[in-house]
């Protein structure tokens, strides 16, 4: 209708980037169509033009931590604090990324397919979360998951106690999780 080409991969990336709110999607699609001016909307175009949802930014934070790219992780954390995202929401979403990976890890260990894992753990409309997790679990074994969950629980307790600086807690957690992903050991 707008004279643009929009492939399925790009459409999926748009939803993952901006979220599932229909009004936001329509607005971002209008913006993308104006930007490409009758051309093709690509993954690169979405990366340049579309506004990331908070959840997408936190998932990017998790990915950077797992990839041990601490510079990008700290920059994303700065952005999230600048946007005044509640620290507990940041922690909750990072934790959910680890839960997604662990569920996939356990399912794969049991010989289950991606669809079986999605059905078993109720990912009906969010199967893409398991697909994202699939790229990350290659670095993990049971010990790394165990250490990661210990670090996440410790950060949760710290955030819920009085007098702690949430930014320091989340920065420390990011470094711990990155070190665990890289070395398979915990660091204090």
Describe the overall structure.
The chain has 188 residues and is mainly alpha-helical. 72% of the residues lie in helices and 2% in strands. It contains ten helices and two strands. It has helices at residues 8-18, 22-36, 43-49, 54-66, 70-82, 87-109, 114-120, 127-136, 142-160, 166-183, and strands at 5-6, 40-41. It has a two-stranded parallel sheet. The radius of gyration is 18 Å and the shape is globular. The N and C termini lie far apart (56 Å). The model has no long low-confidence stretch (mean pLDDT 90).
Helices and strands, with pairings:
Blueprint lengths: L4 E2 L1 H11 L3 H15 L3 E2 L1 H7 L4 H13 L3 H13 L4 H23 L4 H7 L6 H10 L5 H19 L5 H18 L5
Parallel strand pairs: 1-2
Helix pairs in contact: 4-5, 4-6, 4-10, 5-10, 6-8, 6-9, 9-10
Main features:
globular; 188 residues; 2% strand; two-stranded parallel sheet
């Amino acid at each position: 209708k707008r004279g643009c080409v929009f492939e399925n991969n790009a459409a999926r990336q748009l939803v993952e980037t901006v979220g599932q709110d229909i009004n936001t999607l329509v607005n971002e699609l209008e913006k993308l169509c104006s930007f490409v001016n009758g051309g093709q909307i690509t993954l690169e175009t979405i990366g340049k033009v579309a506004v990331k949802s908070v959840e997408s930014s936190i998932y990017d934070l998790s990915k950077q931590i797992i990839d041990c790219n601490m510079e990008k992780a700290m920059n994303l954390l700065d952005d999230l604090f600048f946007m005044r995202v509640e620290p507990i929401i940041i922690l909750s979403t990072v934790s959910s990324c680890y839960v997604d990976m662990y569920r996939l890890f356990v399912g794969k260990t049991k010989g289950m397919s991606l669809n079986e894992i999605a059905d078993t753990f109720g990912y009906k409309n969010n199967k893409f979360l398991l697909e994202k997790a699939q790229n990350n679990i290659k670095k993990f074994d049971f010990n790394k998951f165990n250490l990661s969950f210990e670090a996440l629980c410790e950060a949760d307790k710290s955030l819920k106690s009085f007098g702690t600086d949430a930014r320091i807690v989340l920065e420390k957690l990011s470094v711990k999780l990155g070190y665990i992903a890289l070395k398979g050991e915990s660091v204090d």
